Amino acid sequence: GNWTADETVPPNATLATDWPGGSGDSEYDYMAPRLGNWASDSWGTGSNNWVDNCERVLRKMTSWSRLTTGKSGKLDLWLLNEDLLTDYGNKQAAKHHIAVTSNQEMIELGFPEGYMQEGVPLRTEFGVPAETGYGINADKMQLLCLYNELFATKGPEEDIRNVCWLWRIGFFGNWRFTSPKFFSKIYPYAAA
User: Fold this and answer.
1) Quick one: CA dihedral 80, 72, 42, 18, positive or negative?
2) Residue 18 and residue 152: Cα distance in Å, rounded?
3) Once rounded to an integer, what is the mean pLDDT over residues 184-190?
């Protein structure tokens, strides 16, 4: 497929096209996730650090996620490394001096704290790699299970030697993603 190459500074110097901005054939980006280099100095801030670029990176990546996927491509959540979220929060606190509260839906999903940008919640979770963030579209994910129930359990059984109760909980299944096209990742791939 083909894609436009009209921008003076392309979002991806390697591709030398306007993708994921611009326009082109659906075959061009059918299976391509949105990868954003937050350490680039091309975000319009004149900097290559996260604190300076964070708002622009998240705004543009959120916009790009909708550009070629339509309403169904809207991200539901930005899951950021703790340091990235903390730096984002510090920048907002220095700028606004307001308390940011979570929406009820995210509280019910187990993410009670965080921020919102462009209508997308920003949260952190254990296990997100350093300097990394993931844009998630839950409508394009499916949890598949090999059993009729989500978790298989056995127990509880008393363990006399350790003076405790043992309970085994198992899950056999995996995630299925409609297409990488509906997901995003930000990382300092290379300073550009």
Assistant:
1) positive
2) 48
3) 89
User: In the chain, what are the domain boundaries?
Assistant: 34-187
Rounded Cα–Cα distance for residues 77 and 191 (Å)? 26
- The secondary structure of 131-146 as a DSSP string is T-EEEE-GGGEEEEES
Which two three-digit tokens encode residue 80? 């950021």
As a whole number of angstroms, the distance between CA 46 and CA 88 comes to 18
Distance between CA 46 and CA 52 in Å, rounded?
Answer: 9
- Residue 143, classed as helix, strand or coil, is strand
Strongest mean pLDDT among 6-15, 29-38, 66-75, 180-189: 180-189
In sign, the C-alpha dihedral spanning 106, 109, 112, 115 is negative
